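Journal club prep — side note

Before the paper discussion, L.F. wants everyone to see what a predicted structure for a comparable chain looks like in token form. Sequence:
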Amino acid sequence: MNRRIQAYFDHNATTAMDDAVLDVMLPYFQGEFGNPSSRHLRGMAARRAIDQAREQVANAVGAQPEQVVFCSGGSEANNLFILGAAGCLKPTRIVVSAIEHPCVLRPAQELARRKLEKWDLRRLTVDHLGQVSLDDAADAMREQPSGLVSVMLANNETGVIQGVAAIAEKARGHGAWMHTDAVQAFGKIPVDFAALKVHAMTLSAHKIYGPKGAAALIVDKRLLLKPLISGGGHENGLRSGTENVPAIVGFGAACELAKIRMTEMTTRVAAMRTRLEQGLIAMGAVIFGLGAARLPNTCYFSLPGIEGDTLVVRLDKAGFAIASGAACSSVTPGQSHVLEAMGVEPMLARCAVRVSLGSTNTPVQVEDFLKTLGSTAAGLRNMHMTYGLETT
């Protein structure tokens, strides 16, 4: 473990598991190790644990337990909706926002590349704040019959919250199936499946202080999806394979805690974010999405003239963990497609870094971060390791 880390500021990438979540998981690694498909006592105990977790996940977002399909992660859940729905519909148009996570964009692109049953892919534009254009959404569905629409509830880089309910209303009016990736939003802002008016929604455990390897697709019971994984018919035939009982149990517990703690935690985190951004603005930082409704914990900014990757490495050595762009897609480095869609100038986009606060952060850490950032930025500029811009 890296003992240098003084402050973990990368909660949009993942969160540390809550002690209470770990406690409920532990029995299912050894004592209660049964296969939930078995009909003996150990198997039935595992099945009851999954059923309880399904209720906890559903209750946290105003859904019904039978609408919850457990998956291995948000990427699988997003793929299950897009490819699974496409497998049951006549190819028409698939509409996604230009700022979606790659696990939405790439399956959509796959549909558009098919030689047989080819879908027409339409990307929705965003404004300079990173907000999906409602007018463009209406145009996209009016131009051509649309079968699938997917727009994330909150962007993982900027934290900008999208008008999903309004887009879903337009999608329903055109007979399209509407999905939202709510992975980043859940636990930070209220998320209600019915109020969003969507047909499907993705959640993930490790963003809300739960385990990695557990997620869910919340699905309208009237939808038909073609499974990505066939086999024994688990999860009502939508996701075959022996369930990861400990992770699912932890997911349920994390959802319950998130619902209880959200208001208090987000209020405290939002206050720290406000102080952080005051300090950043004083340094001359450009904050992306500033002025739009955003997740209370997320700040995506650039210090002009200082490359983001360089800043991340220097701050890591100083004990602060932050991100340049989206950590979960760092295998494909380059300019953020989110900032590109927002029209951010490429040189400024190269300077982008993200701070995402969480439950363990403190105001003292924020002050220490601002002090360290200021001295680090000054040192980098003095060493002429950047674009040669004057120190601000």
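L.F.'s comment for the group: Confidence is low (pLDDT under 50) at residues 385-392. Keep this in mind when we get to the figures.
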